[in-house]
């Protein structure tokens, strides 16, 4: 750790850096857990527009917010003994027509949501039970439907349908699934964003994991208004049906266009080459190819670029190294805290 980093730590001694991470999918718990391990005060805001897999089936049966991403983030921030976390994550392999493929945690979240009349209060109660160090907030207290308009002018509703359409997405929006009205984020989310040292977007699917959160108007407005440093973790690989042939700057352009201003302050970009043959294409069918760099395009939008080897290869997949990413986020949080004079 550098002398400058020690200086930052002394300035905020007794107060952990406040980091809000917004997103969904497999990348979110990796970053959240690494930030937790580095003693950040983490608030995770999790997308609730997922309509696939176990989460989608449960949502169709009992009309609750899809619990899968929330479950993984709860476990990432939990200080429960490992055996209890493993039970929560256990996925049935029974041939039973209902339980097969479901994670116990998904069923618990769904049950508690019914008991408490909504996902938000259910997750707060479950956070206490699971000894969560930090906060886990569903982006909305009700299930959301994701809508996409494609470049050819056609429109589709539903995350799975949007990805399967195989068309170039122009814009996305969200509505409440039960009545088609505009969703609203809970006040706790808005306050966390306004109080944060840094707000982190990603890593995750641009159109189906990150933007659905920002399209909740009061949540998106808070991201625009906060004094926190807004950080975007650029995906290492493009995603079929969403970001084919995108550069890192293209990702940020889409974010800025949806929010109607250049709001991303810093981008984290992986520069380590992905070795040929390292991706199991049968297992990760949605992954396309490495994201190309356009540093000038990023700078033209006012972004500070932090490029490093953030690559981790495991399980036949291409991922961000959570520890390295969290270290950069922590450094930026310390700097942001000093800049605001807190």
TrEMBL record:
Keywords: Cytoplasm. CDD domains: YvcK_like (cd07187). It comes from the Bacteria. The keyword Magnesium does not apply. Required for morphogenesis under gluconeogenic growth conditions. PANTHER family: GLUCONEOGENESIS FACTOR-RELATED, UNCHARACTERIZED PROTEIN YVCK-RELATED. NCBIfam families: CofD_related (TIGR01826). This is Putative gluconeogenesis factor. It comes from Lacticaseibacillus pabuli.
